[in-house]
Protein backbone atom coordinates (compact mmCIF):
# COMPACT_ATOMS: atom_id res chain seq x y z
CA UNK A 1 0.00 0.00 0.00
CA UNK A 2 1.09 3.57 -0.58
CA UNK A 3 2.11 5.77 2.35
CA UNK A 4 2.32 9.56 2.11
CA UNK A 5 4.19 11.80 4.57
CA UNK A 6 3.23 15.48 4.44
CA UNK A 7 6.16 17.69 5.42
CA UNK A 8 4.17 20.87 6.00
CA UNK A 9 5.42 24.43 6.36
CA UNK A 10 3.79 25.56 9.62
CA UNK A 11 2.79 29.17 10.21
CA UNK A 12 1.43 30.95 13.27
CA UNK A 13 -2.08 31.03 11.74
CA UNK A 14 -4.02 27.90 12.73
CA UNK A 15 -6.66 28.24 9.99
CA UNK A 16 -4.00 28.52 7.29
CA UNK A 17 -2.20 25.44 8.58
CA UNK A 18 -5.44 23.45 8.61
CA UNK A 19 -6.43 24.54 5.13
CA UNK A 20 -3.03 23.75 3.60
CA UNK A 21 -2.75 20.44 5.42
CA UNK A 22 -6.18 19.29 4.21
CA UNK A 23 -5.30 20.35 0.67
CA UNK A 24 -2.13 18.27 0.71
CA UNK A 25 -4.02 15.31 2.19
CA UNK A 26 -6.42 15.47 -0.78
CA UNK A 27 -3.45 15.66 -3.16
CA UNK A 28 -1.84 12.59 -1.56
CA UNK A 29 -5.11 10.66 -1.78
CA UNK A 30 -5.47 11.54 -5.44
CA UNK A 31 -2.02 10.04 -6.02
CA UNK A 32 -3.03 6.72 -4.49
CA UNK A 33 -1.98 7.04 -0.85
CA UNK A 34 -4.03 4.84 1.47
CA UNK A 35 -2.37 6.03 4.67
CA UNK A 36 -1.39 9.69 5.06
CA UNK A 37 0.57 11.22 7.95
CA UNK A 38 0.94 14.84 9.06
CA UNK A 39 3.91 16.09 11.09
CA UNK A 40 4.24 16.82 14.77
CA UNK A 41 3.02 20.34 15.49
CA UNK A 42 1.37 20.77 12.09
CA UNK A 43 -1.25 23.11 13.50
CA UNK A 44 0.80 25.48 15.65
CA UNK A 45 4.36 26.68 16.09
CA UNK A 46 6.43 24.38 18.29
CA UNK A 47 7.39 25.82 21.65
CA UNK A 48 6.25 25.75 25.27
CA UNK A 49 5.07 29.36 24.92
CA UNK A 50 2.56 28.31 22.23
CA UNK A 51 1.02 25.14 23.67
CA UNK A 52 -1.60 26.76 25.91
CA UNK A 53 -2.57 29.37 23.32
CA UNK A 54 -3.21 26.81 20.58
CA UNK A 55 -4.65 24.03 22.75
CA UNK A 56 -7.99 22.42 21.88
CA UNK A 57 -10.13 19.68 23.27
CA UNK A 58 -10.67 16.43 21.35
CA UNK A 59 -13.00 16.43 19.53
CA UNK A 60 -12.56 20.04 18.52
CA UNK A 61 -12.06 22.31 15.52
CA UNK A 62 -8.88 20.76 14.19
CA UNK A 63 -9.76 17.11 14.76
CA UNK A 64 -13.18 17.68 13.19
CA UNK A 65 -11.45 18.90 10.01
CA UNK A 66 -9.17 15.86 10.01
CA UNK A 67 -12.11 13.53 10.46
CA UNK A 68 -13.94 15.17 7.56
CA UNK A 69 -11.01 15.01 5.13
CA UNK A 70 -10.24 11.37 6.06
CA UNK A 71 -13.84 10.45 5.26
CA UNK A 72 -13.91 12.57 2.09
CA UNK A 73 -10.77 10.86 0.76
CA UNK A 74 -11.56 7.43 2.25
CA UNK A 75 -8.08 7.10 3.77
CA UNK A 76 -6.38 6.43 7.08
CA UNK A 77 -5.13 9.80 8.34
CA UNK A 78 -2.54 10.24 11.08
CA UNK A 79 -2.94 13.77 12.34
CA UNK A 80 0.61 14.29 13.49
CA UNK A 81 0.59 16.15 16.76
CA UNK A 82 -2.53 17.79 15.51
CA UNK A 83 -2.88 20.05 18.52
CA UNK A 84 -1.77 20.53 22.07
CA UNK A 85 -4.69 18.72 23.68
CA UNK A 86 -6.43 20.23 26.71
CA UNK A 87 -8.11 17.75 29.01
CA UNK A 88 -9.01 18.18 32.67
CA UNK A 89 -6.81 21.22 33.08
CA UNK A 90 -3.73 19.44 31.66
CA UNK A 91 -2.06 19.79 28.27
CA UNK A 92 -0.83 16.84 26.20
CA UNK A 93 1.15 16.47 22.98
CA UNK A 94 -1.44 14.38 21.15
CA UNK A 95 -1.63 12.57 17.81
CA UNK A 96 -5.04 11.49 16.47
CA UNK A 97 -5.81 8.85 13.83
CA UNK A 98 -8.96 8.76 11.71
CA UNK A 99 -10.28 5.96 9.52
CA UNK A 100 -11.85 6.09 6.05
CA UNK A 101 -15.26 6.57 7.65
CA UNK A 102 -14.02 9.56 9.66
CA UNK A 103 -14.08 7.69 12.97
CA UNK A 104 -11.37 8.31 15.58
CA UNK A 105 -9.27 5.11 15.71
CA UNK A 106 -6.48 6.11 18.07
CA UNK A 107 -5.28 8.98 20.22
CA UNK A 108 -1.62 8.88 21.23
CA UNK A 109 -0.41 11.18 23.97
CA UNK A 110 3.37 11.58 23.83
CA UNK A 111 4.75 9.23 26.47
CA UNK A 112 8.25 10.68 26.85
CA UNK A 113 8.49 14.45 27.27
CA UNK A 114 11.31 16.29 25.54
CA UNK A 115 13.38 17.69 28.42
CA UNK A 116 16.97 18.10 27.27
CA UNK A 117 19.98 20.34 27.81
CA UNK A 118 22.86 20.25 25.33
CA UNK A 119 25.14 23.06 26.61
CA UNK A 120 25.78 25.76 24.05
CA UNK A 121 23.34 24.26 21.55
CA UNK A 122 19.80 23.65 22.79
CA UNK A 123 17.79 23.57 25.98
CA UNK A 124 14.11 22.61 25.94
CA UNK A 125 11.66 21.45 28.59
CA UNK A 126 8.26 20.22 27.44
CA UNK A 127 7.33 19.31 31.02
CA UNK A 128 7.05 23.02 31.83
CA UNK A 129 3.64 22.95 30.16
CA UNK A 130 2.84 19.39 29.03
CA UNK A 131 1.87 16.20 30.85
CA UNK A 132 2.96 12.74 29.61
CA UNK A 133 0.66 10.11 28.16
CA UNK A 134 0.57 6.70 29.80
CA UNK A 135 -0.44 4.25 27.09
CA UNK A 136 0.63 2.51 23.92
CA UNK A 137 -1.30 3.38 20.76
CA UNK A 138 -1.94 0.95 17.90
CA UNK A 139 -4.57 0.72 15.21
CA UNK A 140 -5.53 -1.86 12.59
CA UNK A 141 -5.87 -1.31 8.85
CA UNK A 142 -6.66 -3.84 6.09
CA UNK A 143 -2.94 -3.68 5.25
CA UNK A 144 -1.21 -4.07 8.62
CA UNK A 145 -1.24 -3.01 12.25
CA UNK A 146 0.40 0.37 12.92
CA UNK A 147 2.08 1.62 16.11
CA UNK A 148 2.40 5.28 17.07
CA UNK A 149 4.98 7.39 18.84
CA UNK A 150 5.71 11.12 18.83
CA UNK A 151 9.21 12.50 18.24
CA UNK A 152 11.16 11.88 21.49
CA UNK A 153 9.31 8.57 21.93
CA UNK A 154 11.52 7.24 19.12
CA UNK A 155 14.57 7.30 21.39
CA UNK A 156 13.07 4.63 23.64
CA UNK A 157 13.63 1.23 22.04
CA UNK A 158 11.29 -0.54 24.46
CA UNK A 159 8.26 1.22 22.98
CA UNK A 160 9.09 -0.07 19.50
CA UNK A 161 9.81 -3.57 20.83
CA UNK A 162 6.38 -3.75 22.44
CA UNK A 163 4.74 -2.63 19.21
CA UNK A 164 6.63 -5.32 17.33
CA UNK A 165 5.55 -7.94 19.87
CA UNK A 166 1.94 -6.85 19.42
CA UNK A 167 2.10 -7.44 15.67
CA UNK A 168 2.81 -3.98 14.28
CA UNK A 169 4.59 -3.98 10.92
CA UNK A 170 4.78 -0.20 10.55
CA UNK A 171 5.70 2.41 13.16
CA UNK A 172 4.97 6.07 12.52
CA UNK A 173 6.58 8.86 14.50
CA UNK A 174 5.42 12.41 13.77
CA UNK A 175 8.42 14.39 15.00
CA UNK A 176 10.24 17.70 15.01
CA UNK A 177 13.90 17.06 15.71
CA UNK A 178 15.96 20.27 15.75
CA UNK A 179 19.16 21.45 14.09
CA UNK A 180 21.29 19.85 16.82
CA UNK A 181 19.64 16.44 17.29
CA UNK A 182 18.39 16.11 13.71
CA UNK A 183 21.73 15.75 11.89
CA UNK A 184 23.08 13.55 14.68
CA UNK A 185 20.28 11.10 15.44
CA UNK A 186 17.14 11.48 13.26
CA UNK A 187 18.02 8.86 10.64
CA UNK A 188 20.15 6.75 13.00
CA UNK A 189 17.27 6.18 15.41
CA UNK A 190 14.85 5.29 12.63
CA UNK A 191 17.19 2.75 11.12
CA UNK A 192 17.85 1.26 14.56
CA UNK A 193 14.17 0.86 15.40
CA UNK A 194 13.51 -0.65 11.96
CA UNK A 195 16.31 -3.22 11.86
CA UNK A 196 15.98 -4.21 15.54
CA UNK A 197 12.31 -5.06 15.10
CA UNK A 198 12.26 -5.95 11.39
CA UNK A 199 9.49 -3.54 10.49
CA UNK A 200 8.93 -0.31 8.58
CA UNK A 201 9.54 3.00 10.35
CA UNK A 202 8.25 6.32 9.03
CA UNK A 203 8.88 9.77 10.47
CA UNK A 204 7.15 12.94 9.40
CA UNK A 205 8.53 16.36 10.31
CA UNK A 206 7.43 19.93 9.71
CA UNK A 207 9.31 21.70 6.94
CA UNK A 208 12.24 23.79 8.09
CA UNK A 209 11.57 27.45 8.88
CA UNK A 210 14.80 29.28 9.62
CA UNK A 211 12.84 32.23 11.07
CA UNK A 212 10.98 30.16 13.66
CA UNK A 213 11.91 30.20 17.35
CA UNK A 214 12.35 26.40 17.08
CA UNK A 215 13.88 25.30 13.77
CA UNK A 216 12.86 21.77 12.69
CA UNK A 217 15.35 19.53 10.88
CA UNK A 218 12.84 18.29 8.31
CA UNK A 219 13.94 15.21 6.33
CA UNK A 220 10.78 13.11 6.75
CA UNK A 221 11.92 9.54 6.12
CA UNK A 222 10.81 5.95 5.53
CA UNK A 223 13.09 3.04 6.49
CA UNK A 224 12.44 -0.59 5.54
CA UNK A 225 12.96 -3.68 7.76
CA UNK A 226 16.46 -4.16 6.32
CA UNK A 227 17.42 -0.75 7.70
CA UNK A 228 17.51 0.92 4.29
CA UNK A 229 16.24 4.46 3.75
CA UNK A 230 13.72 4.06 0.93
CA UNK A 231 12.28 7.59 0.89
CA UNK A 232 13.51 10.88 2.30
CA UNK A 233 12.60 14.56 2.02
CA UNK A 234 14.87 17.55 2.16
CA UNK A 235 14.11 20.57 4.33
CA UNK A 236 11.36 22.21 2.27
CA UNK A 237 7.59 21.63 2.23
CA UNK A 238 6.87 18.48 0.25
CA UNK A 239 4.97 15.20 0.21
CA UNK A 240 7.00 11.99 0.41
CA UNK A 241 5.48 8.85 -1.14
CA UNK A 242 6.57 5.27 -0.73
CA UNK A 243 5.06 1.83 -1.22
CA UNK A 244 5.10 -0.38 1.88
CA UNK A 245 5.93 -3.93 0.77
CA UNK A 246 4.77 -6.38 3.41
CA UNK A 247 5.99 -9.31 1.32
CA UNK A 248 9.53 -7.95 1.66
CA UNK A 249 9.01 -7.64 5.41
CA UNK A 250 7.96 -11.30 5.62
CA UNK A 251 10.98 -12.37 3.55
CA UNK A 252 13.42 -10.51 5.81
CA UNK A 253 11.89 -12.04 8.93
CA UNK A 254 12.19 -15.48 7.36
CA UNK A 255 15.79 -14.98 6.28
CA UNK A 256 16.96 -13.66 9.67
CA UNK A 257 14.43 -15.00 12.20
CA UNK A 258 15.44 -12.91 15.20
CA UNK A 259 11.87 -12.66 16.50
CA UNK A 260 11.67 -16.42 17.08
CA UNK A 261 15.27 -16.62 18.29
CA UNK A 262 14.91 -14.21 21.19
CA UNK A 263 15.97 -15.79 24.51
CA UNK A 264 12.81 -15.04 26.44
CA UNK A 265 14.10 -17.35 29.16
CA UNK A 266 16.90 -14.84 29.80
CA UNK A 267 15.36 -11.44 29.13
CA UNK A 268 12.19 -9.67 28.11
CA UNK A 269 10.40 -6.38 27.64
CA UNK A 270 6.78 -6.22 28.73
CA UNK A 271 3.85 -3.82 28.55
CA UNK A 272 2.63 -2.94 32.03
CA UNK A 273 -0.55 -1.05 31.19
TrEMBL record:
A GO term from the CC aspect: mitochondrion
Identify the species of origin: Edolisoma coerulescens
Protein name, as recorded: omega-amidase
Q: What is its EC number?
A: 3.5.1.3
Q: Where is the CN hydrolase domain?
A: 1-246
Family to which this protein belongs: Belongs to the carbon-nitrogen hydrolase superfamily. NIT1/NIT2 family.
Q: Which GO terms of type biological process are on file? A: asparagine metabolic process; glutamine metabolic process; oxaloacetate metabolic process
The UniProt gene name for this protein comes to Nit2
A Pfam family found in this protein is: CN_hydrolase
Q: Which UniProt keywords apply?
A: Hydrolase
What top-level class of enzyme does the UniProt entry assign? hydrolase
For this chain, one GO molecular function annotation is: omega-amidase activity
**Gene3D superfamilies given for it?**
Carbon-nitrogen hydrolase
Reaction(s) catalysed by this chain, per the record, are: 2-oxoglutaramate + H2O = 2-oxoglutarate + NH4(+); 2-oxosuccinamate + H2O = oxaloacetate + NH4(+)
